[in-house]
């Protein structure tokens, strides 16, 4: 489990609960089931209107993954690339084919397949750039959906509050002061729901998803640089040193470079 996500979300929820417990005689005023339905339902419906349904479902299904640390397979991918580079540089095509068959990264496997097929350098570069651009755009679309939900949630919270105020004003002549105060509190809590959902859930998760996207794109760029080096038949040791320097320069996840334990090929 991702400790920072759990700490932030758990701490935020405890803070909200603590504020509710501080006034136990009025704790019932913090619960408004119709308000929850208005905020959550309205946010989802507005998101469905502005985005494709399958994209929204994909984001919702992927939310649990944000609570786990994403395992980095870059070390394995680069080691496989180095083994392939050694075979390809020595013109052992059959052995290079064998190395290719064992790769699980589709981007790396497809790119190196084009290297084996002697694709021109310019075409190879275009292919890899298009693949990375496609992956980036797909992930960025998911991030924007969460940002969209973070924008809609406070608006529907305010909508729920306005409905409550309309109801209060309609009964103003037949209600006492205590009833008016209770109705107003019932109405205002929907705005609180929208603010909490936006700033404690949707927006922080969008930022986390965006950071993961940048890290994924950085890793793909590292692999692209490695494929270019393989195409030029560079020595595996040179490829290793180049990729290590490239990763250190472009790494945006603030992970120590010592975690990238690559195997140097002789």
What report would you give on this structure?
With 266 residues, the chain is mainly alpha-helical. It has one domain. The chain contains nine helices and no strands. It has helices at residues 3-21, 33-50, 53-62, 74-89, 93-101, 106-116, 121-170, 177-231, 236-250. α2 (33-50) runs parallel beside α8 (177-231) and α4 (74-89) runs parallel beside α8. The protein is elongated and about 90 Å long. The two termini are 38 Å apart.
**Measured distance between first and last alpha carbons:** 38 Å
Poorly predicted tracts of residues: 256-266
* Helix and strand pattern: HHHHHHHHH
DSSP helical segment count = 9
Fraction in beta strands: under 5%
The 3D shape can be described as: elongated
Find the count of extended strands (DSSP E, 2+ residues).
0
Structure in a nutshell:
The chain is mainly α. Helices cover 76% and strands 0% of the residues. The two termini are 38 Å apart.
Write the layout of secondary structure elements.
Elements: H1 3-21, H2 33-50, H3 53-62, H4 74-89, H5 93-101, H6 106-116, H7 121-170, H8 177-231, H9 236-250
Helix pairs in contact: 2-7, 2-8, 3-7, 4-5, 4-8, 4-9, 5-6, 6-7, 6-8, 7-8, 8-9
Give the tags.
mainly alpha, elongated, 9 helices, 266 residues
């Amino acid at each position: 489990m991702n400790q920072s996500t759990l700490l932030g979300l758990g701490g935020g929820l405890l803070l909200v609960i603590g504020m509710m417990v501080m006034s136990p005689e009025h704790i019932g005023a913090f619960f408004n089931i119709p308000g929850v339905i208005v905020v959550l339902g309205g946010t989802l419906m507005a998101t469905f209107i502005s985005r494709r349904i399958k994209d929204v479902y994909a984001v919702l299904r992927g939310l649990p993954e944000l609570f786990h640390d994403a395992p980095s397979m870059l070390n394995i991918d680069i080691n496989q690339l180095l083994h392939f580079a050694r075979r390809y540089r020595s013109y052992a095509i059959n052995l290079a084919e064998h190395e290719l068959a064992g790769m699980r990264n589709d981007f790396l496997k497809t790119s190196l397949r084009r290297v084996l097929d002697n694709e021109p350098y310019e075409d190879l570069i275009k292919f890899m750039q298009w693949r990375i651009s496609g992956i980036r755009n797909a992930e960025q679309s998911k991030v924007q959906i969460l940002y969209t939900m973070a924008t809609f949630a406070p608006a529907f919270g305010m909508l729920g509050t306005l409905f409550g105020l309309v109801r209060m004003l309609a009964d103003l002549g037949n209600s006492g002061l205590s009833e008016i105060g209770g109705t107003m509190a019932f109405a205002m809590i929907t705005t609180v729901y929208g603010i909490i959902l936006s700033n404690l859930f949707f927006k922080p998760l969008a930022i986390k998803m965006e950071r993961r996207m940048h890290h994924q794109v950085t890793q793909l760029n590292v692999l692209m640089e490695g494929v270019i080096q393989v195409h030029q038949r560079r020595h595996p040791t040179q490829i290793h040193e180049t990729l290590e320097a490239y990763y250190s320069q472009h790494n945006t996840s603030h992970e120590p470079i010592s975690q990238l334990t690559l195997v140097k090929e002789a």
